[in-house]
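Below is a complete specimen:
___
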Amino acid sequence: MESIHDNTCPSFEGTLELIGRRWTGSVLQAADRGARRFGEYRAVIEGISDRLLSQRLKELEAAGLVERSIIPTTPVQVRYQLSPDGRGLVNALLPLAQWSMHRSGTRGAGRTPSSA
């Protein structure tokens, strides 16, 4: 059996650490649903502070998962969207999200995956 500390392990652990941070999943989901401007993210992610949203967007941009573009209008507009790698990550996370909903539905009293 090969060691679990092979070349892929640090990369995978880094990805898990990034997506496991508070609000990161919500930011990715908002982007996947079409949020582009900061205010749109704020509107769909209930409870996130401006500071934390800004921090998560910067982290996701630095990781190459979100692309930031500046539109030179008055006032300047900043837009965010999933990069191709970000889209791939969201697609890869869908089975995990479905599994999580199924699991919470089987463990919760009277809850179904569709109501989770």
The domain at 8-115 is CATH 1.10.10.10 (Arc Repressor Mutant, subunit A). The first helix runs from residue 8 to 20. Strands lie at 66-71, 77-82. The chain is about 55% helix and 10% strand.
